[in-house]
Amino acid sequence: MKQYMAEDGPVFDLIRRIGESGEMKQYCADCAAYVEKIREHNDNTESFISSYYYDRGYTYRPSFGEIAKQLNRILLTFYYWDEKRYPLLIEHYPDVFMDSGAFSAWSQSGEVNLDKYIKRLKEHENQLTAYAALDVIGDPQASFNNWLTMKAAGLNPLPTVHCGIKNIDKWLRIYLDKHGLKYIALGGMVGRHKNKRMPFLKKAFSIINDYWPVKVHAFGVGDAVSILEAFPFYSADSTGWLKHARYGKRSSNDKMGEFLHKKTTATDRALMGVKQVVEREKYLTELWTEWGIIWEN
């Protein structure tokens, strides 16, 4: 199962204001640049990493050089497009998922211009592994119309069916049956109680099962292990890898272990979050492989 680190523009700005070293600022503004720095220091990684990671009962110094080698996926949001930073990130990462940022725009009373989004996707299409259609939050018909417009422009975007809309079965069957898609996304789950998310997912996968195999991306719940253990998603994303750097939390409450923050910087904690993403991807891939769900890549 593929785990994408979702970048978060406002969070990057927040962490910049923490006032740590230039390296921290560079990492938040340009994750690729910081990872490259780790690669350059791979033979002496321990010399500039001062934090500890607690995993299943014991404490050790993490090998962030090894993490950097495995760090190859990122989800970018067009709504936060940065002309200087984004092309560099797209060039650096071998696996880039581009989201329109419709939810971010909606939550901030902003707007994503469809024509500009299409133009940018066409410029970088060969460098992107996948990209989402532009949603209209709460309006599946308008979202479908945007998807058709993008298809007519020669693109192949992933449509998203959202938790909370009416006629989930209708929209899933339009994409899977009428248009024969084999890669779609489920969204609208961030911030919703499990009593809303789980019935939505059960309903959605009961329909998806009729057209299996279908690759399904889970928007925003890449760190919700209980969901990813219960349903055979192909890929997922989350900004959860930044939560320790963002809030300075002492520990996490998921199944991948706890972080012991002694004298750690936000940089150290962010890198711990990266390690957690890598471990979670490995764990979920092995879990679903045992259950017979194996994707070609």
How would you characterize this protein structure?
This protein is of the alpha/beta class. The model is unreliable at 10-68 and 250-262 (pLDDT under 50). Helices cover 45% and strands 14% of the residues. The protein has a single domain (2-286), classed as Aldolase class I (TIM Barrel), CATH 3.20.20.70. It has helices at 9-16, 22-29, 31-40, 64-70, 85-92, 102-107, 114-124, 140-152, 168-178, 194-208, 225-230, 243-247, 266-290; strands at residues 2-6, 52-55, 58-60, 73-77, 95-99, 130-131, 160-162, 183-187, 215-218, 235-238, 258-260. The protein has an eight-stranded parallel β-sheet, covered by helices on one side. α9 runs parallel beside α10 (194-208).
Arithmetic mean of pLDDT: 75
- Which of globular, elongated, flat, extended, rod-shaped describes the shape? globular
Name the CATH superfamily classification. Aldolase class I
Give the N-terminus to C-terminus distance in angstroms. 9 Å
Poorly predicted regions are 10-68, 250-262
Biggest sheet overview: 8 strands, parallel
CATH architectural label: Alpha-Beta Barrel
CATH fold group? TIM Barrel
Task: Give the total of beta strands.
Answer: 11
